[in-house]
Specification:
Blueprint (H helix, E strand, L loop, with lengths): L1 H13 L5 H46 L14 H8 L1 H10 L7 H12 L2 H8 L5 H16 L3 H13 L5 H18 L17 H16 L1 H10 L11 H16 L5 H15 L4 H18 L11
Helix pairs in contact: 1-2, 1-10, 1-12, 2-3, 2-4, 2-5, 2-9, 2-10, 5-8, 7-9, 10-12, 11-12, 12-13, 12-14, 13-14
């Protein structure tokens, strides 16, 4: 949520022609794009499985034409979790409704499958005498964790699909969404069949309200927050602060000063994580120092309506 707000604000403050209404629409669009990525990556299970099945069929045809013996191990293509996911009604409906497809990145599917088959964990799975639904789930959890996460090949494929499917931030969001895929796989129960629930876009309406209020508050009080920040920049011009750092600081202040139910340390940790991911190596320490000073000063002036737990 916070990352999406920061990304939207970065775009908003980079373009003086944008309005608050436009920014809010872009924020909701970014949530929708990320949710599309969730379903697209879930469908990658079927894409890889189908490619594996086609590869076996091709190998069998070649063996037959050459009058040689070919004994295929069908375990991967008969994976029960993959079959259950393929049959999932929610997934099938969403993919069809949103017209999501891997057609424009078919070469990436082939590359990923090759990497899977060369992987020792896959070889152990294929050779194991254990055949269970849990083992079938586990191999796919491991594939997402160790093959797909941080995969440059997958990033390249998503880069191509972003253009074809008119999406944004897929390569940026890839690993975060993969973590939700892994969570989804853990929740799968064979007894649920095709009606296994998938994750919702939002856990609750409160999340949407939080994100839109955070965006709106940061924009409305931008000048005020920049003044607070500038006052803490000892011998340092505000214009010399990295643009992303200023966005993160303003958003963090909007949350710290306007969301009394969220502990300061929770807010700090979240924005320091965003700084580590999207800004410079020195940004987390710099941002932590500025926010620490402002929070303590606001507390002394009784402007901070929550417990102050900073050191």
């Amino acid at each position: 949520m916070r990352t999406k707000v920061v990304q939207t604000l970065f775009a908003f403050f980079s373009d003086s022609g944008k309005t608050r209404s436009t920014a809010q629409k872009e924020l909701m669009r970014s949530f929708s794009d990320t949710y599309n990525l969730y379903f697209l990556l879930l469908s990658l299970v079927d894409e890889v499985t189908s490619y594996a099945s086609e590869s076996i069929s091709d190998a069998q045809e070649r063996a037959q034409a050459m009058h040689t013996y070919f004994n295929a191990n069908p375990r991967f293509v008969q994976n029960r979790f993959a079959k259950q996911l393929f049959d999932n009604r929610t997934l099938r409906h969403y993919i069809e409704e949103q017209k999501l497809s891997w057609d424009a990145a078919h070469d990436v599917v082939a590359t990923l499958y090759k990497k899977i088959t060369e992987w020792d964990t896959y070889k152990e799975y294929m050779a194991s005498e254990e055949s269970s639904y849990e083992a079938d789930k586990m191999i796919w959890r491991k594939i997402f964790t160790y093959i797909f996460a941080n995969s440059e090949d997958l990033e390249h494929g998503l880069d191509e699909l972003e253009v074809v499917l008119d999406a944004s931030s897929w390569t940026t969001d890839m690993n975060v969404v993969i973590s939700y895929i892994i969570k989804t796989i853990k929740r799968f129960n064979e007894d649920n069949g095709a009606d296994q629930p998938l994750l919702e876009m939002f856990d609750s309406e409160d999340e949407v309200e939080f994100a839109t209020k955070l965006l709106r508050t940061t924009i409305e009080h931008s000048d005020e927050y920049e003044k607070l920040i500038s006052e803490k920049l000892k011998n340092w011009d505000a214009e010399r602060v990295a643009f992303m750092d200023m966005i993160i600081l303003k958003t963090a202040l909007a949350e710290i000063l306007n969301f009394p139910d969220i502990a300061i340390q929770v807010s700090l940790n979240e924005y320091l994580d965003i700084a580590r991911e999207y800004s410079t190596d020195n940004s987390p320490q710099f941002i932590n120092g500025i926010l620490d000073q402002i929070a303590k000063e606001e507390a002394k002036q009784n402007k901070l309506f929550k417990a102050l737990t900073l050191n």
